[in-house]
Amino acid sequence: MSETALNCTSYTSLMRRARIFHTLIPIVILLALWIPGINQGGWRVDTGLYSAIALDAYERGDLLHLHIGAAPYFNKPPLAFWIHGLLLHLFGPHLWVARLGAVLAAIGTTCATMRLCRVIAGPKAALFAGLALVTTLEFFRYARAFSLDLWLAFFLTLSLIPFATSVKTHTPRHTALSGIPLGLALMTKPFLALYAPIIAAVWLLSVRKPRHALMLLPAVLVAVVIAAPWHIEMIREYGSAFVDTYFKQQTFDRATSNAFGADPWWYYLKHVGTTYWPWLAALVGAAISLRFQRVRLSRSGRGIMLGLIWCAMWLVALSIVADKRPRYAVLLYPLASVACGCALAQTQSGWIRQSMRRVTRWLPILAVAFSLTAVAISVRVHRPPSQHWIDLELFLEQTEGNRPTMWTENPMRTTSANIYLMTGAWPVVLPPTDTEQASGRPATGDWLLFERTKNRPTPVRTGDVIFESGKLSILQIE
Fold it and tell me: 90-133 pLDDT, tens per residue?
């Protein structure tokens, strides 16, 4: 082998090791900050409900039809439930296992963000984008919850890589490959993924690649082909119940109905403006830099344009929708990080370059040191669960093996899910009194789980109270 060939091989190997090293830096930071307190807290918000649904699918042996107890659950597509459910099935219903799936989504999103930025603007911009993403608090905190939005952010970021590759290589056919992650995104949350190709088309037109934008049509077709079988099966199995819940309640009503909240249109502008620091300053600087022609025509300029167009169009879409939640803004942060990374990579400011070099060198070390210290001294990262859940879990442990059927007077989905994760059995929902049959009636000695609220201070049935703590009580039915 010639000396030139050996030099080329050595250079390629060196670059490969450099890419791996640059990718590992943000992931080390992410994991170091994630480990402390991973099993602290309780099954709050959607984490308990989604974890119970996911685990139940594997315990039933039916991954296609999700359930909450005996009731079907088709509010959301099943892909994220399949992933988390497999981990919960293998390692048990523990908080750290539910969060393990979330951190895998966060790592995947980080890698996809860095890969996208590397294709557009090079390795330095990719490293800075990865650092920006894993140090964004609003992104990081959803790595500690069962978050469908985090999985959606991963698949949508992944879908943009073929777009960027097609621009770099001048081969529009690469764009059609984005249909695969788009299809996976459609299997994560309803319909939102179909907005991403529109944003990509706007970016492709802004960088004067109209032929590439035409390839979005086969990409969307591939995505629909991937997602269609599950949707068709749900319509076949549940008919109008699925159509009404999935298409109307979970999609149209969430977008238009005040039943999901009446927040002002500037909700997300305020949310990002108060939480996205210090990277909001870099994002504003990236927007200002586009005033200069040399930046607009550079590779970094393309990355800045993609990030800004993505954030602007998603902000508009999220702001006009009635249902507003902080977690929906997770979709913004990967591409905002791309814009920040590209802007920092092409800056001419000496102090900014020095600061980023120091961050790259010292932040992983500091993160690992913090993690080890926090674990060693048992720093509390999450507040403990409510006392009534602690008391109930202790009560259920003490009565294990001597526990009758547990009933509830209403679905109480979150409460029922927590009971399932504790005991492995769903509470049975009582039918209305006038429709009760002999086979659907609790026996004497069965338990009735009751959650007190302002509107329902006492149970409607009589029995001996055998457990009471906070808002929860259990009656032994007479």
Answer: 999 999 999 999 999 999 999 999 999 999 988 899 999 999 99
pTM above 0.70, yes or no: yes
**Domain map (residue ranges) of the chain:** 17-376, 387-477
Q: Which helix (H) or strand (E) holds 141?
A: none
What whole-number distance in Å separates Cα of residue 371 and Cα of residue 32?
A: 5
Pull the structure tokens for residue 115: 């890969």
C-alpha distance from residue 253 to each of 194, 245, 256 (Å): 18, 10, 5
287 CB burial (10 A radius; 0-12, 13-18, 19+): middle
DSSP 430: P
d(CA 231, CA 246) in angstroms, rounded, equals: 10
Measure the CA–CA gap between 331 and 139, rounded to whole angstroms: 9
In sequence order, the 6+-apart residues with CB closer than 8 A to the CB of 460 are 409
Tokens of 206: 């802004």
475 in Cβ contact with 468 (< 8 Å)? no
Phi and psi at 430, nearest 5°, equal: -70, 135
